[in-house]
Design a protein that fits this description.
Shape: globular
Strand content: under 5%
Number of strands: 0
Low-confidence stretches: 1-8
Oligomer: single chain
Distance between the termini: 26 Å
Structural class: mainly alpha
Order of helices and strands: HHHHHHHHHHHHHHH
Length: 282
């Protein structure tokens, strides 16, 4: 009898347990707590959410604009660079911040019955708070650049929401895999750095198009590249090509769309299967 009991895996709460409103309320509460603790004891506090992307922008702008010269012939390069940094930083904060999120909340996972999805979801919500603050900086740059308002600005939330959803999908996958496989953290650190340079952030997609049509299709197979390029186009209009124009036709966007949907769905499936047994593996 004791052997049978020892061999039985005790299931805990799944990713989605009970009322969805409870899940959302818990995720928001965890996000607000993490958001406040992040800057606890800091003199500048929430201002760091604005300073970090601006400092990174300043360094990269000097190097890649004044030294490398990738801005030659590109309209509003500073704004393109800032927008890319802000969006990628949000994605990195969601995915990277969620890797250890289940382990970091080990006590909560072991002792409290709650929908486990609230943990990676709270990381995505906290990153969204930072995104909203950073968009204020982008708006200031837009005003300083003298860009006229356009109706496409009403569609800017579309790529932003898609970015958060994609990040949340990877957050679920990484946080679930990190529980039994601690190698996930260093692997993701390297992958994230590679993804940053593989995404047209430091360099505009127009430069890639000029060099190689095949390379452009490889670069734009990245869902992040598509979302960032669409955001830039909606912000600047014809001065920045759409993702479809850059890659040579809307049909090519089926590849990043499939990757987007596949990774997001995979993240939820893996997290949902592993979440009930997370407590015994921590």
């Amino acid at each position: 009898m004791s052997a049978d009991v020892a061999a039985t895996r005790v299931r805990g709460p799944s990713a989605l347990t009970g009322d969805p409103r409870r899940l959302l309320a818990l995720a928001v509460a965890l996000a607000l707590t993490a958001w406040k603790l992040r800057f606890f004891g800091s003199v500048l506090g929430y201002v760091w959410s604005l300073l970090r992307p601006l400092l990174l922008f300043g360094i990269l702008y000097v190097v890649f604009s004044e030294v490398v010269g990738v801005n030659a012939g590109v309209a509003h390069y500073p704004l393109l660079l800032l927008a890319g940094i802000v969006l990628f930083s949000t994605f990195a904060e969601i995915a990277g911040g969620a890797v250890t999120s289940m382990v970091d909340r080990e006590t909560l996972v072991r002792k409290v019955a709650f929908p486990r999805l609230a943990i990676p979801l709270s990381v995505a919500i906290a990153a969204t708070f930072s995104l909203l603050l950073n968009l204020v900086t982008v708006a200031i740059f837009v005003a300083a650049s003298g860009i006229e308002p356009r109706w496409t600005w009403l569609l800017l939330p579309v790529p932003l929401v898609a970015l958060v959803v994609f990040g949340a999908g990877l957050a679920m996958l990484l946080s679930a895999l990190y529980v039994p496989f601690r190698d996930v953290r260093p692997i993701w650190d390297v992958a994230q750095q590679a993804l940053f340079y593989a995404t047209p952030i430091l360099y505009p997609i127009e430069k890639v198009v000029e060099r190689s049509d095949a390379l452009t299709k490889v670069v734009m197979a990245n869902p992040l590249a598509v979302l960032i390029q669409e955001f830039r186009h909606l912000l600047l209009g014809p001065e920045a090509p759409t993702a479809a124009q850059a890659v040579g036709g809307a049909a090519w966007l089926l590849i990043p769309a499939a990757i987007f949907a596949g990774l997001t769905a995979l993240g939820f499936v893996v997290f949902n299967r592993m979440a009930p047994f997370a407590a015994e593996r921590l």
